[in-house]
Write a structure and sequence with these properties.
heterodimer, A: about 425 residues, alpha/beta, D-Maltodextrin-Binding Protein, domain 2, 2 domains, five-stranded mixed sheet, 19 helices, about 50% helix, B: about 300 residues, mainly alpha, MetI-like fold, disordered C terminus
């Protein structure tokens, strides 16, 4: 019998080993390709670009790299997928940096820009911009705020987003509502009440700090004060967002989802027409357009309902250059970054992914305008950028973020919980972290 | 002649050198380096590390989050091991026959063990979906209310435990069947003459006879479940409200979400100590087992 056990264990480990070998041979094959790449006699400079996310983002990244490599013959960029979230990507870049073998170009989610810059992992782009007379003024101001640390620019806006409210216009009509998104927070609650019928619920609220931040900002509250030395998400204005959430959940017209997969669960409800509205990133737009067509409902998208001030955060990632690479690689990295953020490529990327066009000239370009005529929903996000404000970038923000997430979860799992007390406690803990 | 002797002295070392080097580089060095890092404050990317003595350990043990993590880990380990071994024992007694159907079921029961934990986690997330999941569908058919599974702090850890048990039970079953088959048939033959109830035979003969195997499994399962990571990283991310945050996930989170390599290393040392204690007992029991067999 033991022999049989052994045989099964052996067989499974052989299988495992075989799959592992499979992937490593695939890698050597792609590495083999590079030798056949064009060169001018001189050895081409090879740099790596590490990115996160599959799907349309990955397709677009591969397209960018292919077009860049074909556009000139002194630099070869190799794009490498490093996981399905910015956290995975950061983790890998950090480890590679510690091992002194980092990629030349990668992405930084906007709240970690300062952290990585101050610790010397990324380099300021100012010297390169001066050399080239690079025009930073063409970028939308709302997107630049999360690229700058102490007056220096550490990243170029690339995959940038902003939260929107998506809604099912077909369900809106059935409920006797017009075709427009709720404009105020009161309307949001009122619409939700009318939309909640049978199996349909008004609004899906995945418990994430980003969408919550959007509501807080819109009410005129903030997560942190301007100097980022204190947490202020327990202020009266910020607490209005919580009151709204708790009210909606108590009345069963909002439905929260939690856990590692909260966002995808909420998305699933929206696309299956079990919820009529959802707060989400602009990056989901291309996906929802397709889903709506397949499931036969009309999709709408609007600004985050105005709670009084109407500000919104932005999201996503910036393109950054890593420190500790050779001068030659830095030159190549800068050339690649310029290419990716050029007006032409900004337009292509925005249309392909739904992420925001970061350049003012791209937004005004006829190609983009024609596209907006055809797909008016894509325009909503760009227009909303007028009211965009920066996201926190404090060194300890990741920890504060997780404290806030816990506090949120606690308030929403039991919607009659004393939210003020819970948030006060979270703020007190956050302050201690921010003071460090 | 003398040269040959000398050769014999060096040759063994030479032969084991590759595995010793491998062992030193990939096991001993990381363990020591981890201990070294636990005395520093470092964020993995800054060029300087600040020596802080035992501060990392102090702040760990004074943080509610970490104490919760330890208690979650212990609950997870205890519950998973207890139920896995019991269920595996019952399955093993049932499947300990050589008919086609039994062999097939053995294979089925074992299959979760060789499937990647990542895919397993996704499948269970679908099964446990509150609105569309198969589990809640069946609960509904039976007239029960919907269970919140991984969405509520009261049930999340239990859900993760369920997946842990499901994953491990096949391996344990197979090993126990191996143990059962090594029990001499003559014992059962002599017991059969006594005409005692079968549950008594089970408790008084079968269980004691496979107890060395059971002890072995308890230890191995404890170590495996102390290191649980994939299900948590994928299904709950330690939440809701820290209710499923266990040691390894905590280490990952502190190191790569909070950029605190020192604290993460200190938590790593705590995990190491826990595992070292378990392993110590493991070797103790292993040596007892040898005695048991020779008795």
């Amino acid at each position: 019998m033991f022999k049989r056990v052994l045989a099964i264990i052996l067989a499974s480990s052989v299988l495992l080993a075989a799959t592992a070998c499979g992937s490593s041979t695939a890698q050597t094959e792609t590495e083999g390709d590079q030798s056949s790449a064009p060169s001018r006699g001189n050895e081409p400079i090879i740099i790596e670009f590490w990115y996160a996310f599959g799907g349309t983002v990955e397709e677009n990244t591969n397209r960018l790299v292919e077009e860049f490599n074909a556009s000139q013959d002194e630099i070869i960029v190799k794009a490498e997928y490093q996981g399905g979230s910015y956290n995975d990507l950061h983790t890998k870049v950090q480890s590679a940096f510690a091992a002194k073998n980092p990629p030349a170009v990668t992405l930084n989610e906007i709240t970690v820009i300062k952290n990585f810059a101050e610790n010397g992992m990324t380099q300021p782009l100012d010297p390169y911009m001066e050399q080239d007379n690079f025009d930073l003024d063409d970028f939308i101001p709302g997107l630049l705020s999360n690229t700058q640390v102490d007056g220096k620019t550490y990243g170029l806006p690339y995959l940038r987003s902003t939260p929107l409210i998506y809604y099912n216009a077909t369900l809106f009509e059935k409920a006797g509502l017009g075709k427009d998104a709720p404009k105020t927070m009161d309307e949001l609650l009122e619409f939700s009440r009318k939309l909640t019928q049978g199996e349909v619920i008004g609004l899906s609220t995945p418990i994430t700090t980003w969408t919550y931040e959007a509501l807080v900002d819109s009410y005129g509250g903030r997560l942190l004060n301007e100097e980022e030395t204190e947490a202020v998400f327990n202020s009266p204005k910020a607490m209005k967002a919580m009151e709204l959430y708790q009210q909606g959940i108590r009345e069963n017209v909002f439905k929260n989802t939690t856990g590692g997969d909260a966002t995808s669960q909420a998305k699933l409800e929206f696309q299956n027409q079990r919820s009529a509205m959802i707060l989400g990133s602009t990056a989901d737009l291309a996906y929802y357009v397709q889903i709506a067509k397949e499931n036969g409902f009309e999709l709408g998208a609007g600004f985050i309902p105005n709670g009084g001030e109407g500000s919104v955060p932005t999201g996503g990632a910036n393109l950054v250059m890593v420190n500790g690479i050779t001068e030659e690689q830095a030159y190549a990295a800068w050339e690649f970054m310029k290419f990716v953020t050029s007006k032409e490529q900004t337009i292509k990327s925005s249309i392909a992914t739904g992420y925001l066009p970061a350049r003012i000239s791209a937004k005004g370009d006829t190609v983009m305008q024609d596209f907006y005529k055809e797909q008016p929903l894509f325009r909503v996000a760009v227009d909303q950028l007028e009211t965009a404000i920066p996201r926190p970038m404090a060194e300890n923000f990741p920890k504060v973020n997780s404290l806030l997430l816990d506090a949120l979860t606690e308030c929403l799992i039991d919607p009659s919980a004393d939210a003020q007390a819970i948030m006060d406690a979270a703020v007190e803990e956050s302050d201690a972290l921010l003071a460090q | 002649m003398k040269g040959g002797k000398k050769k014999r002295k060096i040759l063994p070392y030479f032969l084991v050198a590759p595995s010793i080097v491998f062992f030193l580089v990939f096991y001993i060095y990381p363990i020591l380096y981890n201990m070294y890092l636990s005395f520093f404050e470092w964020n993995l990317i800054s060029p300087t590390k600040d020596f802080v003595g035992f501060q990392n350990f102090k702040s760990l043990f004074s943080s509610d989050e970490f104490l919760e993590v330890i208690s979650n880990s212990l609950i997870y380990m205890g519950t998973v091991v207890f139920f896995t071994v019991i269920i595996a024992l019952l399955l093993a007694v049932w499947l300990n026959k050589n008919s086609f159907i039994h062999t097939m079921i053995q294979g089925l029961v074992f299959s979760p063990y060789i499937i990647s934990f990542v895919s397993v986690s996704f499948v269970w997330m679908w099964l446990m979906d509150v609105d569309y999941g198969l589990l809640n569908y069946f609960l509904g058919l039976l007239g029960f209310e919907k269970c919140q599974w991984i969405n509520h702090p009261d049930t999340a850890l239990l859900s993760i435990i369920l997946v842990g048990i499901w994953k491990l039970v096949g391996y344990d079953t197979l090993v126990i069947i191996g143990g059962l088959q090594s029990i001499p048939k003559s014992i059962y033959e002599s017991v059969a003459m006594d005409a005692r109830p079968s549950w008594k035979t089970f408790l008084q003969i079968t269980v004691p006879m496979v107890s060395p195997t059971l002890f072995f499994l308890v230890i191995v399962n404890l170590i495996t479940s102390a290191k649980v990571f994939e299900t948590i990283a994928i299904m709950t991310k330690g939440g809701p409200l820290n209710s499923t945050n266990t040691l390894v996930y905590y280490i990952y989170k502190v190191a790569f979400d909070y950029f605190e390599i020192g604290s993460a290393s200190a938590a790593g040392v705590v995990l190491f100590v826990i595992l070292a204690i378990i392993t110590f007992f493991y070797f103790k029991i292993l040596s007892n087992k040898v005695n048991y067999a020779s008795d």
